[in-house]
Specification:
single chain, about 425 residues, mainly alpha, two-stranded antiparallel sheet, 17 helices, membrane, EmrE-like, Adenosine 3'-phospho 5'-phosphosulfate transporter 1
């Protein structure tokens, strides 16, 4: 039971001894066991909700329902509007194109967006690694203790995001909401599970490895698109996907001879990263489908986080983990500050995402976030002492070169598609 504490101690990190991650925790703290326990907690909410929805639909409640609960049930189960004919009606409002007279203002906005995104997500990344891989309350005689419940961190992030989105919707004009509320629960559940996998993976793999794995998720997305949807891709998409896979392989293989205690890639870490990619891909695709209703991204953020708070707090209460986590916060004020700041950065980062895409488009946003990933790896190596070999560094460079090439090629394709005759359509891309 002391192994996690020894792993986090500076002396162990300095010697670089390898301790099998599977021995770090007791069987009750093993990630697969906790995953099923959390899933059972979510099922205790999802299953009754599903049965209620089916009951109201079978009863034809829209025509037979009456009483004070009718508006609430109608909004949650049936919604109040039909889908929009044009999907772009439910997406972000048209972004303002820069003009010559407002060049300085556009430059200032771009710097503001870039600084906000970098500050939010770089701080979030550093804190994420600190909370999941280091101990709290360590002294000369006491090794301290690690915080283990990733679900509580997910709950902290979602409760603040729910509050921020709710205030934003209340203070600004939003489109009339028409989507059935229960449909947010699908994206919410997959979003919770992807975040949980992301936090848990840091117990088994290094933060730089996690960042590179996220950058390479375009590969399974393309494979699924080819096999399932029969999509066609341009040559440059295959080229960049191959470059990404080569770069990731160089980084992972280069760390094999001299494994650092905090950079050991285990099978559990790979499975958790795969879970993150699968759940995250489902979240984005389901949200795209929901945008066929008239709604703003902040309304989407609010709806998803409503169910995220419900699922996580319900599961935490059923396990008795909520009180234990609160006691941990009471014992360690440093952890409290880290958890709150982590949540603030997550919520503010989401708002910066919406604002940046609205003002400058997805291409500029992708470039900023790609730079953020590179800076995140650099910061993690500097602060937490991760070692990267020359070959590993070249692998990282290849990955980000491929990502920038992908952004450039996609922007060129969009410009070309605007010049196509009305009857022609460009090749589908991911």
């Amino acid at each position: 039971f002391c192994l996690p504490l020894v792993l986090a101690s500076p002396s162990t990190m300095a010697t670089g001894e390898e301790i099998p991650p599977a021995l770090q925790d007791s069987w009750g703290d093993f990630w697969l066991f906790r995953f099923f326990v959390n899933a059972a907690g979510y099922a205790s909410i999802v299953v009754p909700g599903f049965l209620l929805i089916q009951y109201f639909k079978r009863r034809n409640y829209l025509e037979t329902g009456r009483g004070i609960c009718f508006p609430v049930i109608k909004s949650c189960v049936f919604g109040s509007e039909v889908k929009s004919v044009h999907q772009e009606d439910g997406s972000l409002p048209p972004r303002a194109e820069p003009t010559e007279s407002s060049t300085a203002r556009q430059v200032f906005k771009l710097l503001f967006c870039a600084a906000g995104l970098q500050a939010s997500y770089l701080t979030w990344g550093v804190l994420q690694e600190r909370v999941m891989t280091r101990t709290y309350g360590a002294t000369e005689t006491d090794p301290g203790e690690k915080f283990k419940d990733s679900q509580f961190l997910v709950f902290m992030n979602r409760i603040l995001a729910f509050t921020v989105a709710g205030l934003y919707c209340a203070l600004t004009k939003q489109p009339r909401h028409g989507a059935p509320m229960y449909k947010y629960s699908f994206a919410s559940l997959s979003n919770i599970l992807s975040s949980w996998c992301q936090y848990e993976a840091l117990k088994y793999i290094s933060f730089p490895t996690q960042v590179l794995a996220k950058a390479s998720k375009v590969i399974p997305v393309m494979m699924m698109g080819k096999l399932v949807s029969r999509k066609s891709y341009e040559y440059w998409e295959y080229l960049t996907a191959a470059l990404i896979s080569v770069g990731v392989s160089m980084f992972l293989l280069s760390s094999a001879p001299n494994r650092h205690a905090s950079t050991v890639t285990t099978f559990s870490g790979i499975v958790l990263l795969a879970g993150y990619i699968i759940f995250d891909s489902f979240t984005s695709n389901w949200q795209d489908a929901l945008f066929t209703y008239k709604m703003s991204p902040v309304q989407m953020m609010f709806g998803v986080n409503v169910f995220s708070c419900l699922f996580t707090v319900g599961s935490l209460l059923e396990q008795g983990a909520l009180l234990e986590s609160v006691r941990f916060m009471a014992r360690h004020s440093e952890f409290t500050a880290h958890a709150v700041l982590l949540s603030v950065c997550s919520a503010c980062g989401q708002l910066f995402i919406f604002y940046t895409i609205n003002q400058f488009g997805a291409a500029v946003f992708t470039i900023i976030m790609t730079l953020r990933q590179a800076f995140a790896i650099l910061l993690s190596c500097l602060i937490y002492g991760h070692t990267v070999t020359v070959v590993g560094g070249l692998g990282v460079a290849v990955v980000f070169m491929a990502l920038f090439l992908r952004v450039y090629a996609r922007s060129r394709m969009k410009k070309r598609s605007k010049k196509l005759p009305p009857g022609e359509t460009p090749v589908q891309k991911v």
